[in-house]
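I am still getting used to backbone structure tokens and would like to learn alongside you. Please make up or recall a protein chain and show it to me in full. Would you write everything just below, so we can both look at the same thing?
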Amino acid sequence: MLKYDKLHYKTNNKENRGNMYSSNILKQIFSHSTEEYPFECCGVVMESTASDEQTVFRCKNIQNEIHKADPEKNPRDAHTAYSISPVDLLKIHRMMHKQHYRLKAIYHSHPDNKAYFSKEDYSFAALNDEPTYPGTDYIIVSIAKKRVEETVCFSWDSKYKKFSGRTISITY
């Protein structure tokens, strides 16, 4: 595995130039992605409003349970979809309102596929062509054979009213 001091992504979007993730945060996301392979992982990056400290909160993907309960209505399982458990959503909500954290990023993996913003990802991230969670990034990790292939961070671009993606790169 590569050793590095800092990971960041390049962007032309002036609104999001300050959005950086430490190597520790990204390593945790990558680790979660490889551990859950061949299923999609999901989680969030929370940021303290008091100190800007970031924390990864791994979420349970309940998509297999949803699929099993009604495969006709929900044909996709956790190989190609994710649904964050309601218990985890409640914990995230409590962190935001009682412990003064903000939702910095929502992440998930695409096993054996590219790191792209799918139609499903967009429908979750936007409502009436506005971001569901303003100021929140969406990090998508492409993973194949338990190896991270590519990671892209998508952020809302208010000028163009759409999500713009940029590859996360390593800085030594």
Notes: The radius of gyration is 16 Å. Residues 63 and 78 are 5 Å apart (CA to CA).
